[in-house]
Structures
1.
Amino acid sequence: MNIVVYTAIIGGIKDMPHRPACSHAPHDPVRFVCFSNRFDQADGWEVRKPVWQDADPRRTARWHKTHPEELFPDACYSLWHDGTHQLTVDPRRLLVDRYLPESSPAEFASFKHSLRSTVQEELKACIWMRKDDETVMRRQVLRYQQEGINCSGLFETSVVLRKHTPTVRTFDELWWNQIKNGSVRDQLSVNYAANRTDLRTAFLTGDRAKSPYFHFYPHN
């Protein structure tokens, strides 16, 4: 079982890569990869230059977030987490085996949003916090409504665990297409992409700020 844990820290000074605080079986190695244009090395991480870049560093990071199959073609599973997180558990035994086991149809897992449950609520919050262009975000969510896609049960995507299946690849391609051509706010489009592709999903225990698997460090 080939597992890659990865993140991207692009531009600015918001985050520092936190050394993974976890152990795993020697016969089942885990790779830790950080894509960054700020660091040449980071404790516990294999640092790589970004594969794709945009003028907006957020979109650069989200390209990497949505392309694990291209970045790691030999991986069976990938675990993305934001730079705000530090993994504290064996990702195979306590994440893959628990949420995406061979006996389960699930192929994607992330936190359930602790504050909002629909994309409409997320849109209102993003407008209030000025997270992106209001017109772009409104137009995107309106299109989802017109297509009749159910975007409830909102994911919080600071952590994304994937099984690299054909459906997951199709989902990632659609998710990236929404980010590339619409809002950079990936939580506006994740449920849309999941439901359009019939992605089989699960919720991780806890939430972004409090979980049994990660330490959370707010942005600097």
2.
Amino acid sequence: MYRLNGFLCQIWLGEEIPETGNAIGQLPKVIATLKTLQTPPVEIDSILPPLFVTGIRHLLTCAWWPRLWVLQEATLARDAIFICGSYLVSWKLLSALVKQIKRLHLYSLFRRNDHRIEFCDGFSEIHNIELVRHTHSDTLAPNLLRICRQRICFDPCDRVYAVIGLMDKYVQEGFVWEPGEKVEDLYPPFVAILLRMDPTAMLLSLNETTQRNPHLPSWCPDLHYRSLNDVLADYEGYHAGFTIQTTTTFDFDQNDPGKIRTKGIIMDTVETISSEEWAADATDGHLPESPPFSTEQRNIMLLQSYIAIALKMVEKKDIWRIFIGNMIGQQNSKLHWLAGFSSIHDRLANRRWKEEAKKFQTCFHDLQVWSPGTGEPSPAIRFYLKNARRVCYGRKLFTTKAGHIGLGPRSMTVGDHVCILKCAKVPFVLKKHPTQSDTYYLRGEAYVQGLMYGEYLKVNKGFYWITLV
């Protein structure tokens, strides 16, 4: 239940338990103490007593958080107050606590070791709402869709209504729908509007889902189902398409809503695809681990088999980059504050990225020489595996006729094409339409070593119109 009075949102989070009142009373003191820490303390119970953790867990894991409409209820209010029995706690206090929990990597203490990104609770939702509040509208749409598709609702059309209510007024006025419209009629024009606001085509990266409505066009994300994996386009620096202040152009015809036209280059063809793929973790809700190897060990051996293939196509010193998507220089860097001082910024950024690269290379070397007979994987191997899952899960290794290697959608087949869309951050894998020229089905995004930073456009800038159906 909640009550919205003008700019104040009052949210009822359930009946109180004794620990709740105790935790709320300690919040200011605990937050002030956590802010002084640089790393998690060894004796965490002295700062976060078990009763405090239980009380906060009760607040931030209740049934209110996973609901789809949470974003609107909390985002549109200027301030929010949470009510738990007779106790009140402000949004600002809970938000300050969650920021410190994230900074000090204390999720497991509150979540009972559930680190999944799709785990919907107050710890993730508060960050999501802060993101929506402070994100410029040009980049808001992909983030909104990623956040909303994780939330519980029974009508898939509600995904559209929840997102459109948080967009700029001119977007709301430009999108017209009729009550009772089917998903197949509602989603394509809605996604087409968002694509026109998406200068780097990130929405197309949300295409692959755990399930999919077969009546939707291949380019239209099915908003009712969770993404199969996180998009690659989050990493700073990726830009497979143009970099000269241009935008991706999408031409949508209301009379033919199953098609959308854009500019791209078909630059390669898939030649081989690995039959093995990343083993699902136990927390993903799949079958438990099967002997004689654990899920972790199977994934290490998978990467080792991928490395053997990559050695034939990529310089040995660069192979480590493929399986983590060249994960250096991420967006959460504090160096952007120095961007106005270009020479200082560049020197610090280069030093930081070299340090990150060296760490990954060391971990990658340990992974290459590991074998089941050497015992449990080291912390360094586990560090590399944790980051590799972000890129490898839900994708397969493939090679191309032109000699490239990468990770692409599990639905791709031999003969599919690797395409660069104008200004898109990542390449995409497309399937040729059997009868129509320059017409393709969208398979999904891909990481292709040697094509992620506009290298191909140095020799070919001949974009032409293609149609996605």
3.
Amino acid sequence: MDSHAPPGFVDLSDVDSSIRTDIRYAGSHNFVGRPIAGYLEPRCLLTREAADGLARAQRSATAQGYSLKVYDCYRPSRAGQDFEQWSGTPEDSMKAEFYPSLSKHQLFTDGFVGGGQTTHSSGTAVDLTLVPLHAPSQRPFVPGEPLVACTAPNRFPDDTVDMGTGYDCFDPRSHTVDPGVTGAARDHRLLLRQIMTDAGFVNYRNEWWHYDLVNSPHPDTYYDFPVARGALS
């Protein structure tokens, strides 16, 4: 396993500290229900090019009354392997919130969860949403609390705008353009897509939250250093 990032990786907070973070895989509020392998700290690490792109997107979002909030950035390859190992176990504690209508096997076959080789592991992908500029911080997730389906109208009380589903909601309603998502939620998805497209990213159509940098400096290269500030060169 790698212990240090190659030159060119940065901590997003050093590039734009105004972008909010909620790194879900460093905690227990995710579809596995525990911290994921390789996430030692709740940080957003990215290539400098991707971080600069997010800073451009943040300037655009701010001008329209919003802030970006990132859920996941660089992801070690070992995290994808952790997902794969988890899929072969009976552990299903977070199903009611994150994949109420799918089996664990379908999370992979339907294109919602990847293994060790994803663009996240190249440091050029980001999962994110929009938050009103002056929104108060959301309440913390309490492990063991009753779970509400991520497709429900009154789901976990995130501080973001309405996107029609929660983050990492593994359901067809999370497809960026889904006919069942209308009104403000559809408008917010399209606004986020426009902001990110203008900043040099492209959306993954199965997930309204996932964006890849168009011109990756490390295409088809997958890293495994941990998510920790000390891993930066």
